[in-house]
Design goal:
This protein is α/β, with parallel strands linked by helices and 588 residues long. The radius of gyration is 29 Å and the shape is globular. It binds one RNA strand of 77 nucleotides through helix 2, helix 14, helix 15, strand 15 and helix 17.
RNA sequence: GGUUCGGUAGCUCAGCUGGAUAGAGCGUCAUCCUUCUAAGAUGAGGGCCAUUGGUUCGAAUCCAAUCCGAAUCACCA
């Protein structure tokens, strides 16, 4: 059992037998003892002192003695400072921990296994992926991995927004300006199509300006611009199944998919199933009828269908237009139902930006009111936008940090830095390429995953992403460093250790908290918890490394103990990083 | 205007289910490679935790108000 859990339970039991008070184990606050005080773990007493009517010293003394008697093989000592009861754990406990832990036992104990869907990435097909999509992709992939570490079955899906006005804009611009040009070897298909999306917008703005110069109101002009009307017409033709339009649509989408595939492969995104909006946008139509029958929805005179969410503190929301077509919301309800039919998951996580918070609140609410089986399992993993120092990125303005460009840049930087350090001169070209990819992507992924997903983050393109300090390469380096030592020392561990220095103990404590960290990251759907943990562990190891020699340890016993600490640290770093989608090299 | 989210060191961020003197990284300055990988370590400096009030033995953390910023409130997706 986890030591902190044990301390909590024992505290609860001890308080009961001492004072006949019931305090639940999870009400007991156990912290790591601050370095300036003596001890390893601290129980905060204030919480119970009041209801016991005794002084903190009295309670601390009683509880300390009781705990020590209850756990003689674990607690060696305790002291009380103000309302804080500090316990020192027996070195034998940690030695036992180090000696018997195998790298495969680092994970949290299995809990009740669930089937969970993670929908992420979900690109539009009118433009290439940018930095914001990278945050989405890395988050989704990492969340899936973290849930797997907890023992769940995960189904990764993606919904491609392959139809609608946005792609029609790229299509119309291509017709107008491309002269039949197609993607070539110097430009990926997604970038090629994205250029026409920008060209569309430039033309639109020029037309609007012209109309305004002719005396039209800005607002009217933005609706009357000929190129916009052409795009709308094209959308209409698409919906009517016009062959020429569908052909162009397929052709351009395929260019985009070819481009996406290259990017996904490079960044490691994968999906068990990909849904296409062109196949799902008609879903949910029968749900509208169902909702009307159940009186969840109501119809207005113009025959449009609505749901009144004002009792829930929200607004009225339309679910079917007066022309009978369904809206985005309805499609999403339909898709949720379809996913449930196909996969029967216990929970469904949508990795979507926080601009859609309202949408997902409404989606879940409507599904619940319709009594859909999937409703309660809907969870919107809302993440903040990635912004530039100048503000939001806008694809139509062309002010985006392109995903492919950034990935390439990171890989190039890692190449330069690696060459400058000259530590892998024995590598083949293939191994070098792999290493540059590992480090470059490691830096990028870590940069995007190390912050709380909920918070928006700022990326400054002027300052390249760091390779020192709180970064992916720092942790990768620490791993490579450990492996380098272990290659020389071997990993034999046959002698029973009998003493433990402070830094060795700290490492053991840090290692022991990994399973709890996995659970915390999973429960909060927050990979940054693991990123921070991995960084702290790596930093601690580096301090330890600078202070104590492994291969030239004071004695054979010490050497073996430290080798084992190295083995466990490397394995833990590897597991934590792999849950972030980051590989750790053996040498760098 | 309604709703929601955010404001912590020069910059980027932890800490937020209340607990000891608020922490990292970057940047700045100063040390440490004839010894296991210096993408490293050690130290210095840097803070009215947006503001004001409240609850509490105790508040960056909870509550209220205010200020600032963002998202959203479409018969767009």
């Amino acid at each position: 059992m986890n030591l902190i859990t044990l301390l909590k339970q024992t505290t609860s039991k001890s308080l009961d037998s001492l004072y006949q008070v019931k305090i639940q184990p999870d009400q007991v606050l156990v912290n790591a003892t601050k370095p300036e005080f003596e001890g390893d773990y601290t129980i905060v007493l204030f919480a119970f002192v009041k209801q016991l009517g005794k002084s903190p010293e009295q309670v601390g003394n009683d509880l300390g003695n009781a705990m020590q008697n209850a756990l003689p093989s674990i607690i060696t000592n305790f002291n009380i400072v103000k309302g804080f009861l500090n316990f020192t754990i027996r070195n034998d406990y940690w030695l036992e921990f180090i000696q018997h832990l195998s790298p495969n036992e680092l994970l949290p104990p299995a809990i009740n296994k669930k089937k969970i869907m993670v929908e992420y990435s979900s690109p539009n097909t009118n433009k290439p992926l940018h930095l914001g999509h990278l945050r989405n992709n890395f988050l989704g992939w990492s969340i899936a991995e973290i849930l797997k570490l907890q023992g769940h079955e995960v189904v990764k899906t993606c919904i491609v927004n392959d139809r609608g006005i946005h792609i029609c804009k790229s299509m119309i611009a291509w017709q107008l300006f491309a002269n039949g040009a197609t993607p070539n070897s110097t430009q990926k298909g997604d970038h090629f199509v994205g250029d026409y999306y920008v060209k569309y917008n430039d033309a639109f703005k020029a037309e609007v300006a012209e109309l305004v110069a002719g005396g039209m109101m800005q607002e009217t002009a933005e609706k009357e611009a000929p190129i916009l009307k052409a795009a709308h017409e094209m959308l209409l033709k698409w919906e009517q199944g016009d062959a020429a339009t569908l052909n162009l649509w397929k052709k351009m989408n395929n260019w985009v998919y070819e481009g996406f595939e290259v990017t996904y492969k490079k960044i490691g995104s994968d999906f068990f199933k990909t849904y296409y909006e062109s196949n799902t946008y008609l879903l949910g139509k029968e749900l509208v009828e169902e909702g009307l029958t159940k009186k969840v929805f109501y119809q207005k005179e113009d025959s449009s269908v609505w749901i009144d969410l004002t009792p829930d503190g929200l607004d009225e929301k339309i679910v079917r237009r007066k022309d009978g077509t369904s809206v985005y919301m309805t499609q999403d309800i339909g898709l949720a139902q379809l996913k449930q039919k196909e996969f029967n998951t216990d929970a469904s996580i949508y990795v979507v930006g926080d601009e859609q918070n309202y949408h997902f609140k409404v989606l879940k609410l409507i599904c619940q009111k319709l009594k859909q089986p999937a409703a309660d399992g809907i969870y919107h993993l809302s993440y903040g936008m990635v912004e530039l120092p100048t503000g939001k990125m806008k694809s139509r303005e062309g002010t985006v940090v392109d995903a492919d460009d950034l990935v390439d840049e990171m890989i190039n930087i890692s190449k330069e830095k690696t060459e400058a350090l000259g530590k892998v001169s024995d590598f083949t070209q293939a191994k070098l390429t792999e290493l540059y990819n590992t480090i470059g992507l490691g830096a990028l992924k870590f940069f995007l995953l190390r912050v709380d997903p909920k918070k928006k983050m700022i990326f400054n393109p002027e300052e390249s992403i760091d390779f020192h300090g709180f970064t992916g390469p720092f942790i990768q380096y620490t791993h490579a460093r450990i492996k380098s030592i272990l290659r020389k020392t071997g990993t034999a561990f046959t002698i029973t250790p009998n003493e433990l220095l402070p830094l060795e103990k700290q490492l053991a404590i840090e290692l022991s908290s990994f399973p709890a960290m996995v659970n915390e990251a999973a429960d909060n759907l927050d990979p940054s918890k693991l990123a921070i943990y991995a960084f702290n562990l790596a930093k601690l190891f580096n301090t330890f490394y600078a202070e104590h020699s492994i291969s030239n340890a004071e004695s054979e016993v010490k050497k073996q103990l430290r080798i084992q600490l190295g083995v466990l640290t490397a394995a833990t770093l590897q597991k934590a990083m792999s849950a972030l989608g980051i590989a750790v090299p053996e040498q760098m």
